Amino acid sequence: MVLLALLVLSATLWGAASYVSPPVLAVACVVIGAWLLVFAVRERLARTGRRTVRGV
């Protein structure tokens, strides 16, 4: 659900790109990219943790 909301936000940013100054758009893109990176790392660690628990 959160990823869907992020996708909608991203589409909104792309639609607003012609109205927003480039530095603001760049900052928004960096924030979204950082959030996605944190989400991916968190999911990877959670998946690895579950795998080691099952193996025991």
Q: Can you characterise this structure?
A:
This protein is an all-alpha fold and 56 residues long. It has helices at 2-16, 22-55. The mean pLDDT is 81.
Topology of this structure?
Layout: H1 2-16, H2 22-55
Short structural summary:
By secondary structure, the protein is mostly helical.
Largest sheet: none
Estimate percent helicity. Answer: over 70%
Into which percentage range does the β-strand content fall?
A: under 5%
**What is the approximate shape?**
elongated
* Count of beta strands: 0
- What is the alpha-carbon Rg in Å? 16 Å
Q: What's the tally of helices?
A: 2
Structural class: mainly alpha
Secondary-structure element order, N to C = HH
Uncertain runs are none
Span of the ends, CA to CA: 32 Å
Indicate the mean pLDDT.
Answer: 81
Supply the key terms.
56 residues
